[in-house]
Amino acid sequence: MATLNQILAEQAKLIGEAKSSLEAALKKPPTQAATIAAREATVAELKTRVANLTEAKATFNKQVDQQLAGYQAEISALEKLIEEDKKRGGDQPTPPRPVRGKGRGK
């Protein structure tokens, strides 16, 4: 098993090599090919993000459409009940109807 001093020495060596490599890269400008490759990689990444967001938007819109359809169906059903109640006579007591959601407390 490596000792702590050996691990630290190895890390110092790796950091020194990385620093030298970085300094050398900074002294010479990037090539045209490297610039193009970096831009192409950026475009590819952005296209992936756009595709992911487009899919998320479609999923979100589908969920909202489903909720709206549910509310519209409930509105339609309630409007039919209202019309039925009006046909029976507005001043008569309404017979109890099942309540959606929680039941009434007794």
Model description:
It is built from two helices and no strands. The protein is mainly alpha-helical and 106 residues long. The model has no long low-confidence stretch (mean pLDDT 86). It is 76% helix and 0% strand.
Offer a concise description of the structure.
This protein has helices spanning 4-27, 32-88.
Structural class estimated from helices and strands: mainly alpha
Written as H for each helix and E for each strand, in order along the chain, the element string is HH
Could you tell me how far the N terminus lies from the C terminus, measured between alpha carbons in angstroms? 74 Å
> In one word, what is the shape?
elongated
Cα-atom radius of gyration: 35 Å
Specify the helix fraction band: over 70%
Number of strands: 0
In round numbers, the mean pLDDT is 86
Q: What is the overall number of helices?
A: 2
> What are the low-pLDDT stretches, counting only 5+ consecutive residues below 50?
none
Strand content: under 5%
* Main pleated-sheet profile: none
